[in-house]
């Protein structure tokens, strides 16, 4: 017998793409199941089609947020009569890395935590790049925090795991079709690399440059380019964000390596002394979602898709996922 349907709890965030909302319900064992539902309108549906296609290749990857379906579902909003496109995603109780940083004094994370978080992000990027993708929009808002608790000799200690999310702007490595001189940014401008801005290069270097910016932000509590008015010309002149003088030497060397051209990849950077090199245990085993949870999420999808009807798919979306089915 199926458990109760998942019910709307609250809206988690809203952006230019649409919104993300939290839904909850009871699993068969009585525990609470949570799911984040990402919703877009017809105009922004293309990013959802791209995201669900890419996430379907990362099932069980511990450093990538999980999607609980392989299709974008469409339904009619009874309030405004518009078609909405939805995908169900893994819910992060700790919110984004950006909101997590804001909870600390001066918006700065402690050094050991930054090193650990950087290692996790490198593991995620190594997986993404091994599949031939470039994330293109790595930033604290697109990194999710998952709290956990470990019993160590009778003492409960908290720890945190990071997962990379939001693949709506991701591209295949080498795909520069998005680039135009009037629109030179693949993702968020202040996290972009010089080559991506100047030439539209969509390579691993772009994500690693963005990672260097994220590491800076975790140390300083400030966005990259905080010291001046950011201009794309700065990147075209091969300038880089200011690296604070009070950072640990190993952190400075790591960030400079992230900013260097064509000299590294995520797998090699996992050997860097800043993240513990080969001496630290790496969490690369896949995490699996329970079958019961999957069934409950399927029930949620069915409850939110009341009628089957034909709808017109945006041409750009059909190019991204020409073999996928959508229901409304």
From TrEMBL:
Keyword field contains Hydrolase: no
Binding site for ATP: 38
Coiled-coil intervals, chain numbering: none
Residues in Protein kinase domain copies: 6-326
Gene Ontology molecular function, alphabetical: ATP binding; protein serine/threonine kinase activity
Top-level lineage group: Eukaryota
InterPro entries attached to this UniProt entry: Kinase-like_dom_sf, Plant_MAPKKK, Prot_kinase_dom, Protein_kinase_ATP_BS, Ser/Thr_kinase_AS
GO biological process per UniProt: signal transduction
SUPFAM superfamilies, per database record: Protein kinase-like (PK-like) (SSF56112)
Keyword Nucleotide-binding on entry: yes
Keywords: ATP-binding, Kinase, Nucleotide-binding, Serine/threonine-protein kinase, Transferase
Pfam families: Pkinase (PF00069)
Family, as annotated: Belongs to the protein kinase superfamily.
Protein name: Mitogen-activated protein kinase kinase kinase 20-like
Organism: Raphanus sativus
Encoding gene (name): LOC108835272
């Amino acid at each position: 017998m199926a458990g109760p349907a998942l019910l709307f709890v609250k809206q988690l965030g809203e952006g230019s793409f649409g919104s993300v909302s939290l839904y909850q319900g009871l699993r068969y064992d009585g525990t609470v199941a949570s799911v984040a539902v990402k919703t877009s309108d017809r105009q922004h549906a293309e990013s959802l089609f791209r995201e669900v296609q890419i996430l379907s290749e990362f099932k069980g990857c511990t450093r990538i947020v999980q999607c609980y379906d392989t299709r974008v579902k469409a339904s009619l909003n009874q309030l405004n009569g518009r078609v909405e496109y939805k995908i169900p995603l893994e819910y992060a109780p700790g919110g984004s890395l950006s909101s997590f940083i804001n909870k600390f004094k001066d918006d700065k994370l402690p050094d050991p935590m930054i090193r650990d978080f950087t290692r996790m992000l490198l593991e995620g990027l190594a997986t993404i790049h091994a599949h031939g993708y470039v994330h293109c929009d790595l930033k604290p808002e697109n990194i999710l925090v998952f709290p956990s608790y470990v019993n160590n000799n009778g003492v409960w200690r908290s720890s945190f795991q990071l997962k990379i999310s939001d693949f709506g702007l991701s591209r295949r490595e080498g795909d520069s079709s998005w680039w135009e001189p009037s629109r030179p940014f693949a993702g968020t401008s202040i996290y972009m690399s010089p080559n991506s801005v100047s030439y539209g290069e969509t390579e691993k270097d772009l994500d690693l440059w963005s990672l260097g910016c994220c590491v800076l932000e975790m140390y300083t509590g400030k966005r990259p380019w905080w010291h001046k008015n950011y201009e794309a010309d700065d990147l075209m002149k091969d300038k880089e964000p200011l690296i604070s003088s009070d950072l640990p030497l190993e952190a400075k060397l790591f960030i400079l390596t992230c900013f260097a051209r064509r000299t590294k990849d995520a797998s090699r950077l996992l050997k860097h002394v800043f993240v513990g090199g080969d001496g630290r245990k790496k969490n690369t085993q896949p995490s699996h979602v329970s079958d019961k949870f999957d069934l409950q999420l399927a029930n949620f999808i069915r409850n939110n898709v009341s009628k089957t009807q034909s709808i017109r798919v945006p041409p750009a979306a059909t190019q991204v996922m020409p073999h996928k089915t959508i229901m409304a």
